[in-house]
Amino acid sequence: MKVLIVGAGPAGLTTAVELARRGIVSDVIDLRESGSGLSRAVGILPASLEILKPSGVTGKLLATGMKVRQVRIYRHSSLALALPLKGSGADDEFVLGLAQDRTETHLRDVLSELGGTVRYGTELVDLRQDANKVTVEMRDGAKAEYDYVVGADGARSTTRELLNIDFRGHDLPETWSIADVDAEGWPNTNAFTVCQLSGGDVVVVVPLEPNRFRVVSNTEDALAALPLNLNVTNIRRAGEFKISIRQAAQYGVGRVFLVGDAAHCHSPVGGRGMNLGIADGAELARRMVEGGLEGYGEARHKVGKEVIAFSEAVRKVMTSRNPVTRFLVLAVLRTASFMPALQRQFAKKILYG
Ligand SMILES: Cc1cc2nc3c(=O)[nH]c(=O)nc-3n(C[C@H](O)[C@H](O)[C@H](O)COP(=O)(O)OP(=O)(O)OC[C@H]3O[C@@H](n4cnc5c(N)ncnc54)[C@H](O)[C@@H]3O)c2cc1C
User: In this structure, are 129 and 55 located in the same domain?
Assistant: First the structure.
């Protein structure tokens, strides 16, 4: 079976790894000149660790990531709730904090151990298909034929555009800010720290390494908005980003399929995006080898729709500017702080969706 994977982000690399461990070494291309240095997704959920275990990727992730076992919610600088991430009663429950570029490096390393490689500097510009094959064309004019093509080329997917698939949804008007920093003395190194500010503003701190953190906010300057003391020694990257809430009307046409952000995108609240793409890639690879490809699109569209709804519900509650909603959120948090059963329900939702 000849498979082309367009895009070497987490979704494309997972598809390639999951095919390779079943004996199918695909061609993986990416228009970048080398791997990305951006640490976009920082939370790896238990489901993704389970998916990536058989290939050996999970072992590498666990060796480098930070085990986040708590969510600490502050009203400005006062702690409102410290929620242990204990949802199912399993001994060791956590979200793994790790910068996305590190996650991609581990996926690439395992892919190369399994005989695969990423061809960088190669951009898909055209594709045509008939009942038996897909013919693709690259920016340099090179053409090739494949049995299947996987569009893992992100939110602005060329593959999706070439298939004429509608990317339905909307863009949020507000700008969010992000900073990846080295810092010392932060007390919450095993926790997601969420600070609720006035008027629906929020700042979140995620540990990535013992002294490396992600700070993200729906304000103009995440670091300036943080009401707690983070002793920053180095700013690796600071910038702004916009959020789109969109989902492809269908996850493929004929012999061409979509995975990851090419099929869906939403806010980083809840930390679902990359994890959803990892699950898409794993399921597509399994169906390519074991059968049931025709059910891929419908199955993953349904999951994607649910995840987008969950992520949007959390974002709206977290950033609500409505004083009644904010009062209710605080009341629920206060109640949860002395109700272990409610805390477990929250934890379960965060860990397992
Ligand atoms: C600020 C921020 C924070 C986030 N935090 C989280 C988080 O905590 N948890 C989480 O789960 N998710 C998070 N996300 C979302 C997450 O980063 C994405 O869901 C994830 O990167 C999508 O992976 P992907 O492989 O589908 O696409 P991408 O990572 O976008 O990779 C697509 C690749 O395709 C390549 N490509 C594009 N077009 C072509 C072409 N024509 N030919 C060849 N190659 C092409 C690109 O160069 C790119 O390398 C965050 C996103 C942002 C912006």
Answer: yes
Task: Give me ligand 1 centre to Cα 90, in Å.
Answer: 31
Cβ(11) – ligand 1 distance below 6 Å:
yes
In a domain, 77, yes or no: no
| Residue nearest atom 51 in ligand 1 by C-alpha distance | 40
Averaged pLDDT for residues 28-54: 91
> Is there a single domain that holds both residue 301 and residue 184?
no
CATH (domain of 190): 3.30.70.2450
What is the extent of the structural domain holding 113? 3-67+98-171+243-317
118 inside domain: yes
Domains identified in the chain, total number: 2
CA of 331 to the centre of ligand 1 (A): 36
Ligand 1 contacts CB of residue 124 (under 6 A) = yes
**Which of 30, 193, 215, 258 has the most ligand 1 atoms within 8 A of CB, as the residue to mutate?**
30
User: 286, 312, 311: which is closest to 299 by C-alpha?
Assistant: 286
Is residue 42 within 6 Å of ligand 1 at its C-beta?
Answer: yes
What CA–CA distance (Å, rounded) separates 198 from 200? 6
51 with 192, same domain: the answer is no
Domain check: are 201 and 275 in the same one?
no
Q: pLDDT of 244-301, one tens digit each?
A: 999 999 999 999 999 999 999 999 888 899 999 999 999 999 999 999 999 999 999 9
Residues 12-34 pLDDT 10s: 999 999 999 999 999 999 999 99
HEC profile of 110-132: HHHHCCCCEEECCCEEEEEECCC
Q: Residue 294, exposed/middle/buried by CB under 10 A (0-12, 13-18, 19+)?
A: exposed
322: pLDDT strictly greater than 90: no
Find out whether the beta carbon of 304 lies less than 6 Å from any atom of ligand 1. Answer: no
What's the whole-number average pLDDT of the chain?
Answer: 93
CA Rg, the chain, in Å?
Answer: 21
